[in-house]
Amino acid sequence: MEINRSILLRESYANVGDYVALTKPRVMSLVVFTALVGLMVAPGGIDPFAGFVALLCIAAGAGAAGALNMWYDADIDAMMARTAMRPIPSGRVSRSEALVFGLMLGICAIVALGTLLNIAAAALLAFTIFFYVVVYTMWLKRRRPQNIVIGGAAGALPPVIGWVAVTGNVGLEPLILFLIIFLWTPPHFWALLGTVAQSCRRICSRRCADVAGRSRQGRNKAPDSSL
């Protein structure tokens, strides 16, 4: 499906549902579930209000990471039928709005978690968002075939954050939960990859053509060394 990329720069026509979609609710639900496990197995227990605050902040942090991922990957999303109707490629939310929304949501989540519970959990949440957005989305995803293996660490950290929200420190148990999710992520992703393989090949072909075109253009513009 051919998508006009100029749609990425259109004026926003967003509603609340579009901003909810930016947070990737299905992914967020998995994050909340695994964080809840970390909260429940942590020693000492946690009162209902603190548990609610922890889950809300972790959910908001996951939503912020999802929004920033969609902001950065809007060009790729516009090329795939599966993602072309997401808020940014479809023109309902502008890239700048998605960026501001993601940053504000993430900052609020980190500050609230650090203020209402503890700094250690907030720092770990900040690291998780950074790792997913910068290390995975911006660096690994488009450059390294091992991106999902390394990037899966971000998705495996929520139970550790849940544990730290209760105890203030990291123990052996949350690390085991981390390893379970970390080892589960790559085969899960590779199984899903078969359903979008054709779109991925099309994106790769276009990117290779773009790189080749820029390379030829650069050679054509290069000054003659004999002059």
Question: Could you explain how this protein is built, in words?
Answer:
This protein is mainly α. The chain is 72% helix and 0% strand. It has 10 helices and no strands. The chain has helices at residues 16-22, 25-41, 48-72, 74-77, 95-116, 119-140, 147-156, 158-167, 172-193, 197-221. The longest helix is centred in the N-terminal third of the chain and has 25 residues, at 48-72.
Per CATH, the class reads Mainly Alpha
Topology-level CATH name: Tetracycline Repressor, domain 2
Q: How much of the sequence is in beta strands?
A: under 5%
Largest sheet: number of strands, sense, barrel closure: none
Task: Note the total helix count.
Answer: 10
Summarize the entry for a quick read.
Helix content is 72%, strand content 0%. The protein has 227 residues and is mostly helical.
Helix/strand layout:
Elements: H1 16-22, H2 25-41, H3 48-72, H4 74-77, H5 95-116, H6 119-140, H7 147-156, H8 158-167, H9 172-193, H10 197-221
Helix pairs in contact: 1-3, 2-3, 2-8, 3-5, 3-6, 3-8, 5-6, 6-7, 6-8, 7-9, 8-9
